[in-house]
From TrEMBL:
It comes from Streptomyces reniochalinae. SUPFAM superfamilies: MFS general substrate transporter. The active site is at residue 144. Residues 76-295 form the Peptidase M48 domain. Keywords: Cell membrane, Hydrolase, Membrane, Metal-binding, Metalloprotease, Protease, Transmembrane, Transmembrane helix, Zinc. Binds 1 zinc ion per subunit. GO terms for molecular function: metalloendopeptidase activity; zinc ion binding. The chain crosses the membrane at residues 21-39, 45-62, 153-174, 189-210. This is Protease HtpX homolog. Its cofactor is Zn(2+).
Length: 301
């Protein structure tokens, strides 16, 4: 957590982030090790690609995520209400102001990116700003800024990257092996073609489950920290209820376009009841509202 931030610290979140990164790192080592053994003399290629992708993900993940979700940075003159809310929250939390952006989308949502507070960005969609009043918008932004203060945005980005890396490196492994097999009939390509995809699939499944468990907890933690910072959990609850209800009215095409980025969003966008809802990156609406009601009762006492 940032040194001077007034957001409530969450030891449970910190413990889960450290644990997730430990197991993600262990999976990364296992994946690279299997590919090095499988590729034989081509192992330097694996290490170079893995290292290059990891560095690129760490330094450019926030820009890639913002670009993918259509975020464009705006000035205080272009979005005075949005900047004003962020200014008030940053002053209240005693934290550096992140860059402020807007995404032209009717899907009502918000997200934060950035590997640290110095290069963080908080973004709201045009659909969100149109549907929420000033207090509700401030509640959502307080939730998103808590992700920046707790630094769980960077952890989620790096953790999610391993699944992508597993798929890319598997393709490289298979391509390299097939190339060598063409000139060497004695190469046991059949076995490698079976082992490498199986290991990569296992790595993807485990990393997927780890990131989902962390993601659900971090959303509850952000709700709690954001509500305690503003002292108005009811406005955050109202925003959650309003956004979740309006999500059903969004065209399926727009929801499907937003679904890949659900782990970053304030509220997940689902195009219908499916298996994806069982493995949602967010806790259920009822659970989030129940926590906020508890915080209201706590503040009332």
């Amino acid at each position: 957590m940032a040194r001077h931030s007034r957001y409530v610290a969450d030891r449970g979140l910190t413990t889960r982030m450290v644990t997730t990164m430990f197991f993600i790192g262990l999976l990364y080592v296992v994946l690279v090790g299997v590919l090095v053994v499988a590729l034989g003399n081509a192992w330097p290629l694996v290490l170079v690609i893995a290292g290059a992708l990891f560095v690129a993900q760490f330094w450019f993940s926030d820009k890639i995520a913002a670009f993918s979700m259509g975020a464009r940075e705006v000035t205080p003159q272009q979005a005075p209400a949005l900047h004003g809310a962020v200014d008030r929250l940053c002053a209240l939390a005693d934290m550096p102001k992140p860059r402020v952006a807007i995404a032209d989308s009717d899907v009502p949502n918000a997200f934060a990116t950035g590997r640290n507070q110095q290069n963080a960005m908080v973004c709201a969609t045009t659909g969100l700003m149109r549907r929420l009043d000033a207090d509700e918008l401030e509640g959502v932004l307080s939730h998103e800024l808590s992700h920046v203060a707790h630094r769980d945005v960077a952890v989620m980005t790096i953790a999610s990257f391993l699944g992508v890396l597993a798929g890319i490196m598997t393709r490289v492994a298979l391509w390299s092996n097939l190339g060598r097999s063409a000139g060497n009939n004695n190469n046991p390509a059949g076995l490698l073609l079976l082992v490498v995809p199986l290991v990569s699939a296992l790595v993807y499944i485990v990393s997927f489950l780890l990131t989902r468990l962390l993601s659900r907890y971090r959303e509850l933690s952000a709700d709690r920290a954001g509500a305690l910072l503003t002292g108005r959990p009811s406005t955050l609850a109202a925003a959650l209820t309003k956004i979740s209800g309006d999500m059903a009215r969004i065209p399926t095409r727009d929801l499907r376009r937003a679904e890949p980025y659900n782990a970053f969003f304030f509220v997940p966008a689902f195009s219908g009841e499916s298996l994806a809802t069982l493995f949602s990156s967010h806790p259920s609406l009822d659970k989030r509202l129940e926590q906020l009601r508890g915080i209201s009762a706590q503040l009332g006492r």
